[in-house]
Design a protein that fits this description.
There is one protein chain. With 490 residues, the protein is α+β, with helices and mostly antiparallel strands. Helices cover 51% and strands 19% of the residues. The longest helix is centred in the middle third of the chain and has 71 residues. The N terminus is likely disordered. Pfam families: cNMP_binding (PF00027), HATPase_c (PF02518). Keywords: Kinase, Transferase, Two-component regulatory system.
């Protein structure tokens, strides 16, 4: 059982009548009330002092108090699995929390605190009981209550349905992309394994023919030694350009054709890819000694080269599978602490891998990383969600063709991640609204308007950072600024 589930709430007694109507009027929440209404609030409310570190409200407990912050700094956290995720950190005087929906008539449903609240330093609050707050709202603002109830319940149901659908769509898209990426190296490894089995069988057959050809033991030993030299040379061979490879294949093919090597033109590309040249073939011919055994020796060494090349293909394919699985694990943050010191580049790279199928071949990805940046305190799984939302929007804005630039740099005491695209840009009148919930510029059915709202809350509320949009046609950038240290309490 976690600490937040067993920690006892120990608060100092609430002192009634300590705030006057005039003092209440200085709080933005009560500034428009009449004198009589302020007198009623002052008579029914009380003030409470809380020491630093104390748990004030616990998520899931019955919502019995409506609380207004008078001084100090508080944080709100939500429970996600086994982890506590900070959603808000504030010291703004007059902010309110607790039984904020006590006036909503949810028949048969008990209102509970939606988050836990902790005082980060000594704090003072003005407190109303949930019953008094509900009576006040219903009696004084009946029309507003009808509107708020409809709006709150409607948005709650809408957001629940859309969020669930969005999560399923995101999971489906990531799963499809990952399966697509895994299928390519897996299929390549399967094909290479089948071809390798044939080449090994052919190699055994040719070795038997060589042995049956009454080859002198010393000469056969020299040929085996030459085979090892050829394989080692192939491993160190420099890559050839397409033109160089074609010229080398022609030279090797002519050499084999002159010596009546069967299938010489089929073997030439194998020897060329292995980095062998005419001098190497002359060496093979000298060590075989007779033209009769040259054909078998060339094929035997050809099988050895192909075997090495196929094993390299299998190694590359399985390494790719391993890299994809590692990226998926890094992206999902399996078996990792929710909050840790991280290198932002790790999450960016894993997100790009996970979105590789969606990015496609038409988008050029440019990475401009400052690898000297220090680690930062963060919730990596949440930041991966931010990178996913922004990159996905960028790719859609470019309609699958353009340049995606991911850049990192330091700005004062912040690490900045810039994600830019070459799409048409966001008009100036819409830039200030992109972080609003349910606002989207996409066509109907293509977006929920929650991605950037969630990203903003993760960066600003959860990490004490900032996220800024800069846009003009052909150059749109989201700048995510994350502090290098844990935000201070003041």
């Amino acid at each position: 059982m976690s600490d937040i589930e067993v920690e006892e709430i120990r608060l100092q007694p609430c002192e009634p009548g300590t705030l006057t109507p005039a003092e209440l009027r200085t709080l933005f929440l009560f500034e428009k009330l009449t004198d009589d209404q302020l007198a009623w609030v002052a008579a029914h409310g009380c003030t409470m002092h809380t020491p630093a570190g104390a748990l004030v409200l616990r998520e899931g407990d019955p919502a019995e108090k409506f609380i207004v912050l008078l001084s100090g700094t508080i944080s709100l956290t939500r429970r996600v699995g086994q982890d506590d995720v900070m959603t808000t950190r504030t010291e703004q005087r007059g902010v309110y929390m607790g039984a904020t929906q006590a006036y909503i008539r949810d028949e048969g449903i008990e209102h509970r605190y939606m988050a836990s609240m902790r005082a980060l330093d000594d704090a003072d609050f003005f407190v109303l009981s949930a019953a008094d707050f509900a009576w006040m709202m219903r009696e004084w603002f009946p029309m507003a209550i009808h509107l708020l109830e409809g709006l709150t319940l409607g948005m709650r149901n809408t957001q629940a349905a859309i969020s669930e659908r969005q999560r399923l769509m995101a999971l489906g898209a990531l799963s499809a992309g990952l399966m697509h990426e895994l299928n390519n190296p897996a299929a390549a490894a399967s094909r290479a394994t089948g071809a390798l089995r044939q080449r090994v069988a052919g190699m055994r057959h040719k070795l038997g023919m060589l042995a049956a050809g009454r080859v002198d033991p010393d000469r056969l030993d020299a040929l085996v030694e030459l085979q090892e030299e050829v394989i080692e040379r192939a491993a160190k061979a420099p890559a050839l350009t397409a033109m160089q490879a074609a010229d080398r294949e022609d030279e090797l093919g002519d050499w084999m054709d002159q010596r009546n090597v069967t299938g010489g033109w089929d073997l030439a590309p194998v020897f060329a890819q292995g980095g062998l040249d005419i001098d190497c073939l002359d060496d093979i011919e000298a060590k075989v000694g007779t033209r009769e055994l040259l054909d078998q020796a060339i094929h035997w060494i050809g099988y050895a080269l192909e075997t090495e090349q196929l094993m390299s293909d299998i190694e590359d394919a399985t390494s790719r599978v391993s890299s994809l699985v590692s990226a998926a694990k890094q992206y999902s943050q399996l078996d990792r602490a929710a909050h840790q010191w991280i290198d932002v580049h790790t999450g960016l790279d894993s997100t790009l891998v996970m979105l590789g199928h969606k990015i496609g071949n038409g988008v050029k990805v440019v990475k401009d990383y400052d690898r000297t940046l220090p680690q930062i305190p963060a919730h990596p799984a949440e930041l991966n969600q931010v990178w996913t939302n922004i990159i996905d929007n960028a790719v859609q804005a470019m309609s699958g063709a353009g340049t995606l630039t991911v850049r990192t740099f330091r700005e004062d005491d912040h690490v900045v991640v810039s994600i830019g695209d070459t799409g048409p840009g966001v008009p100036e009148e819409l830039r200030k609204r992109v972080f609003e919930p349910f606002f989207t510029t996409k066509a109907v059915g293509e977006g929920t308007g929650l991605g950037l709202d969630i990203s903003y809350r993760i960066v600003v509320g959860g990490h004490g950072g900032d996220i800024v949009l800069e846009s003009r046609p052909g150059d749109t950038r989201f700048l995510v600024k994350l502090p290098l240290t844990e935000p201070s309490s003041r």
